[in-house]
Amino acid sequence: MNLEQQIAKIVEANNATFYDTEIVTEGEQTIYRVYVAQDDGVSLELCADISRELSVFLDVNPPMGGRYTLEVSSPGLERKLTKPIHFKYTVGESIKFKIIGVDKGKGILLSADDKCIVVQTKQGKETYKYDELGTVKTYIDWN
Q1: In this structure, what CATH number is given to the domain that contains residue 89?
Q2: In CATH, what number is assigned to the domain containing residue 34?
Q3: Residues 135/80, Cβ–Cβ less than 8 Å
Q4: Count: domains in the chain
Q5: With 90 labelled, which of 53, 108, 125, 133 sits at a CA distance of 20 to 30 A?
Q6: How many CA atoms lie within 13 A of 104 on its CB side?
Q7: How far apart are CA 14 and CA 24, in angstroms?
Q8: Are 108 and 120 in contact (CB under 8 A)?
């Protein structure tokens, strides 16, 4: 079982869904972020509970060499979509996307499977394979 699978088990034991991890450097500090989701939203208390459990686990199974700070949070309303499972969770939401070497687009994500997505754009239904896509994010039209 790999590290993300073990993290997912801890997250799921807290009635949440494991979304993703990322490693970022802010100033001189390295941060290991664990993103979790829940249908009714992610509370600060949930993040604290998961953080306490993950901290003990990661002390024994560090995600990287060197010093880092653990953060547990929601992926947010406007979040990156990088894995097929992210797209599956996002069906029905608005997305902005880049098509590698071509253009940018936006629309409503209609469906997602393990190979491609279907997006309703102004031009109609468009299908893209994951390897055709660059950056993809959800977005909220605040108007």
Answers
A1: 2.30.30.100
A2: 3.30.300.70
A3: yes
A4: 2
A5: 53
A6: 5
A7: 25
A8: yes
Whole-prediction pTM: 0.79
Q: b/e per residue, 71-100, with b = 16+ CB within 10 A?
A: ebbbbeeebebeeeebbebbeeebbebeee
Domain check: are 67 and 115 in the same one?
no
Give the structural domain span for 26: 3-73
122-142 residue pLDDT tens: 999 999 999 999 999 999 877
16 vs 18: CA distance, rounded Å: 7
Tokens at residue 42, please? 């992610």
Residue 78 covered by a domain: no
Cβ–Cβ < 8 Å for 68, 34: no
Distance CA 133, CA 140 (A): 20
pLDDT tens-digit profile of 16-47?
999 999 999 999 999 999 999 988 889 999 99
* ∠ Cα 99 104 109 (to 5°): 80
Task: State the Cα–Cα distance between residues 77 and 60, nearest whole angstrom.
Answer: 32
